[in-house]
Amino acid sequence: MEQALIYVVPALGLVGLIVMAIKSAWVTKQETGDKTMMELAGYIADGAMAFLKAEWKVLSYFAVIAVILLAWSGMSVETSSPVIAISFLIGAVFSAFAGYIGMNIATKANVRTTQAARTSLKHALKVSFTGGSVMGLGVAGLAVLGLGSLFILFYNMYVQSVGAGVNGVEMEKALEVLAGFSLGAESIALFARVGGGIYTKAADVGADLVGKVEAGIPEDDVRNPATIADNVGDNVGDVAGMGADLFGSYVATILATMVLGREIVSIDNFGGIAPILLPMVLAGLGIVFSILGMFFVTIKDDKGDVQHALNMGNWSSIVFTGIASFFVVKYMLPETLSIRGYDFTNMDVFYAIILGLVVGTLMSIITEYYTAMGKRPVQSIIKQSATGHATNIIAGLAVGMESTVLPILVLAGGIMGSYAFAGLYGVAIAAAGMMATTAMQLAIDAFGPIADNAGGIAEMSQLPEEVRNRTDILDAVGNTTAASGKGFAIASAALTSLALFAAFVGVAGIDAIDIFKAPVLAALFVGGMIPYIFSSLAIAAVGRAAMDMVNEVRRQFREIPGIMEYKAKPEYDKCVEISTKASLREMLLPGAIALITPILVGFGFQGVFEQVSSAEMLGGLLAGVTVSGVLMGMFQSNAGGAWDNAKKSFEKGVEIDGEMYYKKSEPHKASVTGDTVGDPFKDTSGPSMNILIKLMSIVALIIAPHISQRPHTAGMSEKMEIKKEIKYEDGKKVVTETITEIKKVN
């Protein structure tokens, strides 16, 4: 029974990848349009692939250094192994490949969506969403396949091969080595998200400031030299970066739950590993239910509600997962369980999973309210655009700050509720439940950049207005779904970080984080500061790169005669080169802060203070960065999304104090400024916050055995015997086996 369930997990990941391949083949078979459309799509695809290759080259140097350090550290403690370096490398490769899958299909789906929009909105939605679903299934499938396969390998290597118990040091070692997979995934995700975000926003800001504001030409006009770089940026930032981002989030959430599950003594039919297996099983089933939910994403005609169609797909996958989790929990877990002295039942675990799904849904709904067209927050920005650029900025900042209130209250309620149900395991499994439908969430997310690219190709190809109108409908919905996805991601990151934090405390052997101790409070403040300096570096990088882009676009308008008359072709490659070099140069320092800070605190303060351990100080640092990072992520993502849709509202016309305003009006110009400020908020620094807090927690978990307050030796004096009676079916005969396991006391 145990063996069968273990192998079901990677099999479900494989199912996701098979369906992904089928959907990818369907997208590739769709019509690509005329020669001009294909030429423009080719520029975008070539630019995106050139960036990805250059990024991989830089990251390969980082990976080599990390592998050497991890291999060395794995030899110095009992609960780790040099194999953690291989685990890290596999996680990094899978994360990079997940981003490539999304970008590859997005650069094929964009032009096909444009061509589909020449016939109907329904067909355009089908092509763009199918392209997004390829990315969603690719990310989820790779994560479940990789995590499930490595767990089988490490479980056999470190636990079963020596006949060890589930709750002992051997399983701790297996999961510590598995944590390397998550570290590799999150490391690549951070660099991909920050680098891609800098790339896309440098191009976007440069294109907007010179093209729309100075030259007065439409967005994505073929005469603007930065338009190709802008569209490339949608793929490398919002697709490849986002794919690596959610791959890392997905893996970290499952891992955190597994680490806490090891502490539960479970008398079950799966050799005692049911609490460890449960999050992986939920993730695998989530792929299946996401596939089912994708069939609900359709509209009848051009008057159909695209947002409603996407919501139907999302909600159906969530409902299916919730229903299935009841049967899975009842089947896998025993009636009663306990973690760190907190007793709970299998039904309490089910309630925690449902709470996680509810929290994820509420976070998406609230974020949609604050960023969608026609809602009060966006309308307030539109209204204040009438009095100029400054009031538009003030309104957007206010909306962003206000938008943190309800999500934080929901998140706080979710944390307290899930803890009340099943202790720290409840918090972790709630996050795992929330992330179970990642394939659907990511499909909805990735659909947006594809639609945005499709609109750009339609504009640059000078297709009829009705085509651009259809792509604009998809693009506007895509902005809202992207903002909702970021809200969902930051909520899951908060729950996951709390679970990782709890796992770190257990491995590090500390009982509490006492902020009354001055060194711990100091570390708390430093942690709270990190998201601010991280955001500053990311936003400043966009500003510097955008200045270079603005100067290049101005130069081409000035020095290449005939561009404005369509008689000369701009030098698109020069702008692509500027974004590529800037993003690769500027992504390194923010990434280094996230990786090095926990190591400096963990090792740098060992033995410095007599009454305070470095592990406790590191705990304070993690608490500070988590709280500050969650708030910063919500504020920036929501403010940027609201600014963007306020600007887009002018394209159809808005009424302010009884007067209608359209594109090129003074209020519209003010909204363009707001959108320009919001661009690095929502696409560079904001979405990077969830990776930042999870990556620092994972680094802390990796180094925890090295700074632990309890010895990790086989000859510990404090031990306890746990006797477990396990019943399982062997053919037609019921066999009862009693095992005695030695468990260390923390």
Pick out its properties.
mainly alpha, cell membrane, membrane, two-stranded antiparallel ribbon, 5% strand, Putative K(+)-stimulated pyrophosphate-energized sodium pump, 746 residues, globular
Question: What's the short version?
Answer:
Belongs to the H(+)-translocating pyrophosphatase (TC 3.A.10) family. K(+)-stimulated subfamily. Helix content is 76%, strand content 5%. It has 19 helices and 6 strands.
SSE blueprint:
Blueprint lengths: L1 H27 L6 H40 L8 H35 L3 H38 L10 H46 L12 H35 L12 H21 L11 H27 L3 E4 L2 E4 H26 L4 H10 L3 H14 L2 H31 L2 H23 L4 H44 L9 H42 L12 H15 L1 H17 L9 H36 L4 E3 L2 E3 L4 H38 L15 E12 L2 E12 L2
Helix pairs in contact: 1-4, 1-7, 2-3, 2-5, 2-6, 2-16, 3-4, 3-5, 3-6, 3-13, 4-5, 4-6, 4-7, 4-13, 5-6, 5-15, 5-16, 5-17, 5-19, 6-7, 6-12, 6-13, 6-14, 6-16, 6-19, 7-8, 7-12, 8-9, 9-12, 9-14, 10-11, 10-18, 10-19, 11-18, 11-19, 12-14, 13-14, 14-18, 14-19, 15-16, ...
Explain what the structure shows.
The protein has 746 residues and is mainly α. It has one domain (45-711, 719-741). The chain has 19 helices and six strands. The chain has helices spanning 2-28, 35-74, 83-117, 121-158, 169-214, 227-261, 274-294, 306-332, 346-371, 376-385, 389-402, 405-435, 438-460, 465-508, 518-559, 572-586, 588-604, 614-649, 666-703, and strands at residues 336-339, 342-345, 654-656, 659-661, 719-730, 733-744. The strands form three sheets. Strands 1-2 form a two-stranded antiparallel ribbon. The protein has a two-stranded antiparallel sheet with strand order 3-4. Helix 9 crosses helix 14 and helix 18 runs antiparallel to helix 19. The radius of gyration is 26 Å and the shape is globular. The two termini are 31 Å apart. Residues 712-726 and 735-746 have low confidence and may be disordered. One of its GO terms (biological process) is sodium ion transport. Keywords: Cell membrane, Ion transport, Magnesium, Membrane, Potassium, Sodium, Sodium transport, Translocase, Transmembrane, Transmembrane helix, Transport. It is a multi-pass membrane protein.
